[in-house]
Structure formats: structure tokens, C-alpha cells
Amino acid sequence: MAIQAGWSGRFYEDFEVGDIYQHPLGRTITETDEVWFSSLVTSPNQLHFNKDYASRTHFGQLTVNAPFTNALVTGLSVSDISQNGINLEWTYIKVPNPLFIGETVYAESEVLEKRESKSKPAQGIVTVRTRGITDTGKIVIELERKILIYKREHAPQLNLFPQAAKA
Q1: Could you tell me which CATH number the domain at 12-153 has?
Q2: Nearest 5°: phi and psi at 127?
Q3: What's the pTM value of the predicted model, to 2 decimals?
Q4: Domain coordinates of the chain in residue numbers?
Q5: H helices then E strands: how many in the chain?
Q6: Are 15 and 114 in contact (CB under 8 A)?
Q7: Residue-wise pLDDT tens digits, 63-80
């Protein structure tokens, strides 16, 4: 039986300006997700964890904390965008619509720019715009970020899978 390599993410050479990646995983938001995140970051905005309070707002229901939406949508894109790099900066974030408990969000990213790194010749910098889109097509977040990404031949992760110990 032949061992098949798993998806190892894109490297700098794989990115082309104008490419759009529709990331394959979606995530349905639960009330537990939202309460946990808001508690973890000590965000006391009742709009995220108090149904009675939220029902009295113009939203009429709990909304998802925007930093959680950002983290989730960024996370959904990692296997295609930043698995072989690190985020340098978020240069733009817009939340045009709220994300609600029970909605499912997907992510898609467009490559806006790529360039060689001036200080790290083994890596390049890729700029992407990522959008979080619900299963009904509502855009809940748009963000742009720059990622420092390894060139394939310099990636530290190649051949990391351990050998199984013999019994």
C-alpha cells in the first residue's frame, strides 16, 4: 500500500494575483461558541450572551462577537492561505452585517498582491481579501491581510510525519 501525502497548503509560488479560493469548510455558530468566546476575551457586551437584552435591540436576537467572526473566517481560510506562513497584519476589516447564532459561515479569499520579501529571501508576502459569507449569501465580514509565506523549497514542515515505533 502506497502512502499518499495529505494537503500541505499553498506555498508562495502557488499564489497568483486574481485567484479566488472558496474554502471548503463551513461552520455553524452555536450559542456555546459565542458565550465561550465572549467570556474568554472578557467582553461584557450583553448583545452576545443575554437573550433578553438582545431581544430588545434592533437585531432582536444574540449577535456573534465581531472578533470571533474575524477569527473564525480567518481560521476557515488557513489550509488554503496561511498554512505555510504567518499573518503579518490585518489592513482592513469591515463587518457589513451581523452573524447570528445558528447561522453557517463560509469563507472565500482573493489574492490581491504578492511580492518577494526584502528581508527574508526564503519567503514572500501575499495580500488577500477574505469574505465571510453565510449559507444564505449574506456577507458578514470582509478583511484584508498580509501573510509572510514560505517558498516551497524552504518550508520547515516538509517530512514532519513521525515514523511509527515498532511493536
Answers
A1: 3.10.129.10
A2: -110, 130
A3: 0.90
A4: 12-153
A5: 3, 6
A6: yes
A7: 999 999 999 999 999 999
